[in-house]
Specification:
This protein is an alpha/beta fold and 210 residues long. The protein is built from 9 helices and 6 strands. A 6-stranded parallel beta sheet has the order 3-2-1-4-5-6, sandwiched between helices. α1 packs across α2 and α2 crosses α3. The longest helix is centred in the first third of the chain and has 14 residues. One of its GO terms (biological process) is DNA repair.
C-alpha cells in the first residue's frame, strides 16, 4: 500500500448519509407548506449543513427551533437508509490485513457514530473514533488531525486523510497530511476519486517503507 494510516471522515465518506437527511429536510419543509427541490437540498447538504441552514434561514426566516430541528433531523431517519458506501468494508478490511490502521475523525457525537458502526458491524475496523465529544476545534481547523497524529505517533507522509468536502482537505493539509477527496469537482487533493474501486487502485500505486 502507498499509505499506512487512514483517517476517515464519517458522513458522506464512510456512510451515504446525505440522501436520507435531504429527504427528511424536504419532508419537514413540506409540512410547513414550503416546497424545495430535493436535488437542491442534497447539493447544499453535501457542501455543509451550515451552508444549507443559512440558505433556508435567509430564504424563509425560520425560527431557531425549526433550524435546530432541521440540523438534527438525520437522527429521525432509519439506520437502514444510511448505509455504508459500496466497497468501503472491503477497503477497510484490506487496509488492516496489510498492516495498516483506520481512524475516524468526525464532527458527530460518539453515540451518533457508534450507532451506525454497530448497526452495520463495522466498529472493529477502526483503531479510534475521534468525535465531537472530545471537544476539539471543528474543521477546517486542523486540531483534530493533529490530535490523532500526536496520540498515535503517526508519520505524516504515511498517513492519508479521506473526506468528501473541501474543509476535509483543507484541515488535513493544515496538519501536513496527504489528502484524498471523495467526490466531483476541482479540488487540490493528492487523490481525487468518485468510486471506492478506484480508491483501492490508487492506494496501491506505491508501497510505504516499514
Amino acid at each position: 500500500m502507498k499509505y499506512k494510516n487512514y483517517i476517515w471522515d464519517f458522513g458522506g465518506t464512510l456512510f451515504d448519509t446525505y440522501p436520507a437527511f435531504s429527504k427528511k429536510v424536504v419532508e419537514i419543509l413540506r409540512d410547513k407548506k414550503i416546497e424545495e427541490d430535493y436535488e437542491t437540498i442534497l447539493k447544499m447538504a453535501k457542501k455543509s449543513k451550515s451552508h444549507l441552514i443559512d440558505y433556508l434561514n435567509e430564504k424563509y426566516t425560520l425560527s431557531d427551533r425549526e433550524l435546530k430541528y432541521i440540523r438534527k433531523c438525520e437522527k429521525y431517519t432509519s439506520l437502514n437508509s444510511r448505509s455504508p458506501f459500496e466497497g468501503i468494508e472491503e477497503i477497510l478490511n484490506y487496509i488492516i490485513s496489510n498492516g495498516g490502521k483506520n481512524f475516524i475523525y468526525t464532527h458527530r457525537t460518539f453515540h451518533s457514530a457508534m450507532e451506525l458502526l454497530y448497526h452495520y458491524k463495522m466498529f472493529d475496523y477502526f483503531e479510534d473514533i475521534v468525535s465531537k465529544d472530545v471537544g476539539l476545534e471543528r474543521k477546517p481547523d486542523s486540531e483534530g488531525f493533529e490530535y490523532i497524529i500526536d496520540k498515535y505517533d503517526l508519520e505524516k507522509n504515511k498517513t492519508l486523510s479521506i473526506g468528501d468536502r473541501v474543509i476535509d482537505v483543507e484541515s488535513s493539509k493544515g496538519a501536513g497530511l496527504q489528502t484524498a477527496f471523495f467526490g466531483e469537482g476541482v479540488v487540490s487533493a493528492d487523490i481525487v476519486f468518485q468510486d471506492f474501486s478506484d480508491f483501492m487502485k490508487l492506494i496501491n500505486e506505491g508501497d510505504y517503507n516499514d
